[in-house]
Amino acid sequence: EKVIEEQIKLEQLIVQILDDAAYAERFIAAPNNKRCPSMYQVLESYYDKKDWGFHVKPKLVLRATPRQMTRYELALDILLMIEDDVSEDPTLDRKLFWLRANRFKWTKLAKFFGFHRITIKNRYNKVLDKLSNKIKNSIDKLDKKFI
């Protein structure tokens, strides 16, 4: 009974890390094109009748916290642990895990991958179970994150 509880806790932790990483991805800064002509900044500018000219709008910029970035890196490591020993088709399952972390519904995922929604959900749970067993057996690499 204790082994099952640990297994469930580890699976929930993996799902939570992937969710946090998907949420943090929204706050990662996009690449900036410095070679973009300044005329395109007019589209993002405003004009105040009191001023002499156009001014670039100040934007509210949110950034990812260090904890979110750590979780993001850990999520990438976890997704790369999905290999042939865990899954029949690792690339499909990595996509499945990442899209599920981005809160896609099972029906949308099923249409995207061409399976039934129950089949996708069962595949997700099966790979999650094998992945948690793999992580539990190789906990020495990730001991700081999971303890």
Keywords for this entry:
6 helices; 57% helix; two-stranded antiparallel ribbon; mainly alpha; 147 residues
Write structural notes for this entry:
- Helix 1 packs across helix 3 (90-101) and helix 1 (2-25) packs across helix 5 (117-137).
- The chain has helices at residues 2-25, 66-80, 90-101, 106-113, 117-137, 143-146, and strands at residues 45-47, 54-56.
- A hairpin with a 6-residue loop joins strand 1 (45-47) and strand 2 (54-56).
- The longest helix is centred in the first third of the chain and has 24 residues, at 2-25.
- The chain has six helices and two strands.
- It is 57% helix and 4% strand.
- It has a two-stranded antiparallel ribbon with strand order 1-2.
- It is mostly helical and 147 residues long.
